[in-house]
Amino acid sequence: MDWLSDLARTFFDGSAMLAVLPQLLTTGLVNTLVISVSATLIGVVLGMVLAVMGISTTRWLRLPARIYTDVFRGLPAILTILLIGQGFAGVARDVFGPSPYPLGILALSLISSAYIGEIFRAGIQSVDRGQLEACRALGMSYATGMRQVVVPQGIRRVLPALVNQFIAIVKDSSLVYFLGLLVTEREIFRVAQDAAVLNGNLSPLVLAGVFYLAITVPLTHLVNHFDNRFRTGRRTATAPASGLDEVDEVDGTPIALTRGSNT
Q1: Which of 1, 15, 32, 104 holds its CA 20 to 30 A away from the CA of 178?
Q2: Comparing C-alpha atoms, which of 47, 27, 37, 22 is closest to residue 170?
Q3: Three-state SS for 246?
Q4: pLDDT of residue 91
Q5: d(CA 24, CA 17)
């Protein structure tokens, strides 16, 4: 059937895929990971600041954090990227040169920080208030108790959500191509798109999709693993001499399960 062969040539042309594969590996994949990891790291730092401001009892700290979060979560990602990438192009040219690459990372960082800030805030507020009260009873200051006890517990609880946010950033990194990246700065989607336009074939885009799946699918399963472990805990066997059958570890806290009596 002709239409099946046409579809195969359009989407699964092996020669077109092999031709673009080296560029996808050496240029596209590298730049996608650089953009995504950089935006995530900056977003984590800014997000923690936003989370601390968001739970502050001081109104003049809470209000700017709320406005920032609402704005960058409410705007479409592509609109933010274009506003940052084109609006600050003149200023960035004096600092970074003609490349819009840093502005793309900055735009994604601002977007991710708004989401990560909410993730951190929810995680911190999920920790029982008695934890902080116990810290104060032990003579710790509010800042010390938050830094050493409450915040670490909150971060651990939101690790799956943070990985999910990184997956979203990986996919949003494809939008940076709207800024007109240099040839050596193209990410996965731009490399595949250029090859598809040049060859008049969509197979490079299909291969780009495979690359994105190779990044996101394992991370998705990792999220599910972390989520199941944090929700259900982990059971480990103990020595018979201990008088216990096993230990149930929930959120990192060992809870002893006593041995049942035999009658």
Answers
A1: 15
A2: 37
A3: strand
A4: 83
A5: 10
Q: Describe the strand order of the beta sheet including 253-258 as a list of residue ranges.
A: 234-237, 244-250, 253-258
Q: Is 113 exposed, middle or buried (0-12, 13-18, 19+ CB in 10 A)?
A: buried
Residue 43: which of 107, 123, 96 has the closest Cα?
107
Q: What is the pLDDT of residue 74?
A: 94
Which CATH number is 2-232 given? Answer: 1.10.3720.10
Paired with 255 in beta bridges are 248
**Is the pLDDT reported for residue 250 higher than 60?**
no
User: What is the pLDDT averaged over residues 17-26?
Assistant: 92
Q: Measured on CA atoms in the order 94, 95, 100, 105, is the torsion positive or negative?
A: negative
- Provide the b/e sequence for 125-145 (b: ≥16 CB within 10 Å): eebeeeebeebeeeebeeeeb
Closest CA to 181 of 32, 19, 25: 32
Q: What pTM does this model have? A: 0.80
- Helix extents (H) in the chain: 2-11, 14-23, 30-54, 59-74, 77-87, 89-96, 101-126, 129-137, 142-145, 151-157, 159-172, 188-199, 203-232
State how far the Cα of 194 lies from the Cα of 207, in Å rounded to an integer.
13
Q: Quick: pLDDT tens for 43-74.
A: 999 999 999 899 887 889 899 999 999 999 99
